[in-house]
Amino acid sequence: MTSLSLRREEARRARRARGHVTGPGPGRWAVLAALVVLAVVMLLPFAIVTLNALKSPAEYSSNGPLSLPRGFYLDGLVEFWNRVDFGRKLLNSFVISASVAVLAVVLSVLNAYALGVGRVRGRLWILVVFLMANTLPQEALAYPLYYLSKATGLYDTRLAVIIIFTVVQSAFGTYLLSAVLGEFPREIIEAAAMDGAGRWRVLWRIVVPISRPTLSVMMIFFFIWTWNEFFLPLIFLISNDNQTVPVSLGVLQGDKMMDATLSSASALLGIVPAVAFFLIFQRTLTRGVTVGAVK
Amino acid sequence: MSKKGIAAAFVAAALTLAACGSSGSPAPSAGGGSPEARTLTLWHYEGKTSAMGVAWADAIKKFEASHPNVTVKFEEKGFEQIQKTAGMVLGSDQAPDIMEYNKGNATAGLLSKQGLLTDLSEEAAKRGWDKLLSPSLQTTARYDERGVMGSGKWFGVPNYAEYVMVYYNKDAFAKQGIEVPATYEEFTAAMDKFVKAGVTPVSTGGAEYPAQQIMYQLALSKAQRPWVDAYQLYKGKVDFHGPELTYGATAFADWVKKGYVAKDSAGLKAEDMIVGFISGKFPVLVSGSWLYGRFGSDVKKFKWGTFLWPGNQMSAGSSGNLWVVPEKSKNKDLAYDFIDITMSKDIQNELGNAGGVPVAADPAAITDEKNKELIENFNKLSAQDGLAFYPDWPAPGYYDVLVSGVQELINGSKAPDKVLDDLAQPYNDNLADIGN
Q1: CA of B3 to nearest chain A CA: how many angstroms apart?
Q2: Which of A33, A78, B213, B435 is least surrounded by CB atoms within 10 angstroms?
Q3: Where is each ABC transmembrane type-1 domain found (chain A) (predicted)?
């Protein structure tokens, strides 16, 4: 096992070394410059948000959004945290996103196993339907879902949002995973079947472990996507006690008012969990992506 | 191995949390404890430090003191959330007992037409709210069966008012030796002086509400109440090429030509306009009383003051947002009591002292000099029946129509009479829609 991973490590190093042989030509510098520009463009909004989150409102108004803050003004952050009971919103967002991520992956796996490996009849059309469900604008879903949730007594509960997003995300997950599992080496499955494994066993013992990198990437994406959802949570989570982070940020947007410093403070608080989550799981993420790419 | 661990932890955490979450969600109308204990659920979306936020927090305290068995469950909402979801919430059992809602045909009017709001006519008469509110403030409280404001039943009660005025930088005016203008001619003369001195006088933004309100103010300088009633309440025909709007559009185009407003302001937003004034770059700003508190706390570099648009009988302005009582409210009697407290002299005076425009305050009880100026100007306007509402009210989506029309005037890409044609079309389409 260790010798195997060592050998793999060597191979990787060799590949990298080979890449270096070509040396830094002008083309590479151009790519580097383009990447630097891109990085600056991507990071600039974050920098501005951070800048303004640390300013007092008076400072912002008299010196404009691009001036440097004089000292750390943390009252905005603290005020926002207390005003919307941010700890509770974080918990809500986590509960919803984590449940959706797990449930949607499970659902996607079951669906994709049937469609990709099981090859049920008319699978193409089933996939088209899934894809259509995925492209449907959420505004179109709002009213039907509202009546359904009212009829089932789930309106204004986190469970309603969990169910909705489990379905929405797994529609995409099914589509993606069916394509991946369609390419699943049949020999492995046949060998397992020969050894007497049933369909259930093949799924959990063979298919899931082998496609685990893809599944973890999907889970992470589902988590982040659900975390950032705004429209449907806005409609379904009416009580402040049930609201998620993005919805709570909307509290600051008035009719004709905009509190730029407080909004920046809240945006900063809203971004931090997603960034933290990404940093924790980024190794899984990149590994999953590269594994998929090599295949 | 580690991946499995992470996934397992994930599942466990998520599911336990979800389980405890769904069972632990509190019932909206808590009834525990003694059988008499009641809860009044109240929603509004005014900032905690705004005049309304301050006054209403006090109203809640007073209410709880006079109703010892009632707890007020206050939830601060976002403006957008209420805008997007009010119709759904009010149709469900999660409706609050009382809430703040936007005045106007497309908002309170629409909900009243759908039967989602309680008719408050009886209470308004019984508790004397109809006496406290002047006729133009009542306009936005009453809606007919088509959901058009101005007549019919009471569906809301406004607590505060707002109006458009001219904010000016006292230091900059003094530097140019300019007095506060009393007539429109003096006003333009003052702006000419600034232009000559190389200063663009008026901070505005064409991408949002500010610039269209200037055009409306200009049109109103030629208008009286009947024209406003025709334009806003559909009582009579509006000629878009009549003297009022023609003057509004041509005079505004003139403002651009003479350099009163910057040529690049077409793409600016309200926030840019505000920051432009506070930073001292522009000495004049035309906007509403909703900015009063912000300037009070944020303007540090110079002295500022306000005056009503010189020479106008009418000015953009209206009641503030409304207290409405949802039809599904479970505590309507408590909701009425609460509205009554917010209309009381104490709370109204407090609203005035906190920088708002109260509708029923005692002017003598307003101690703050600055706020006195704000309220006196409003009382003057209200006494001459001068609230003319806002230009974008008459038709759904008219705001965007006005934004693009005014932007074309600023850019000079269309002549004023062509712009008026563009404005007339959607207005008349809407008239046909509501059957006028």
Answers
A1: 8
A2: B435
A3: 90-281
User: Which residue in chain A is spatially nearest to B101 when comparing CA positions?
Assistant: A255
Which alpha helices (DSSP H) does A183-259 contain, by range? 186-194, 199-201, 208-210, 212-228, 231-236, 245-249
Q: Distance between CA atoms of B34 and B239, rounded to whole angstroms?
A: 63
Packing angle of the helix pair B2-24, A260-294 (nearest 10 deg): 140
Range of the domain at A117: 87-259+270-294
Q: What pLDDT score was predicted for residue B78?
A: 84
Contact between chains at A256 and B290 (C-beta distance less than 8 A) = yes
CATH code for position A218 = 1.10.3720.10
Prediction pTM value: 0.80
Could you tell me the two tokens for B56?
């209403």
Asked if the structure places residue A240 within a domain, the reply is: yes
pLDDT above 90: residue B250: yes
Say yes or no to pLDDT of B222 above 70: yes
Q: Count how many domains chain A has.
A: 1
CA terminus-to-terminus distance, chain A: 21
Question: What is the distance between the alpha carbons of residues B224 and B216, in angstroms, rounded to a whole number?
Answer: 13
Q: Is the ipTM of this complex over 0.95?
A: no
In a domain, A48, yes or no: no
Min Cα distance B242 → chain A (Å) is 31
A8-52 pLDDT, tens digit per residue, is: 566 566 555 555 545 668 889 999 999 999 999 999 988 888 888
Nearest to A216 among B3, B92, B294 (CB): B3
Q: Is A79 domain-assigned? A: no
Q: Is the CB of B85 less than 8 angstroms away from the CB of A235?
A: yes
Contact criterion met (CB < 8 Å) for B279 and A62: yes
* Among candidate residues B404, B13, B424, B15, the one with its CA nearest the CA of residue B244: B424
Mean pLDDT value across chain A: 84
Q: Which CATH class is domain B162-318+388-433?
A: alpha beta
- Structural domain spans, chain B: 38-159+320-361, 162-318+388-433
- For residue A155, being part of any structural domain is answered with yes
Can you give the pLDDT at residue A78? Answer: 86
Domains B38-159+320-361 and B162-318+388-433 share a fold: yes
CATH number of this structure's domain B38-159+320-361: 3.40.190.10
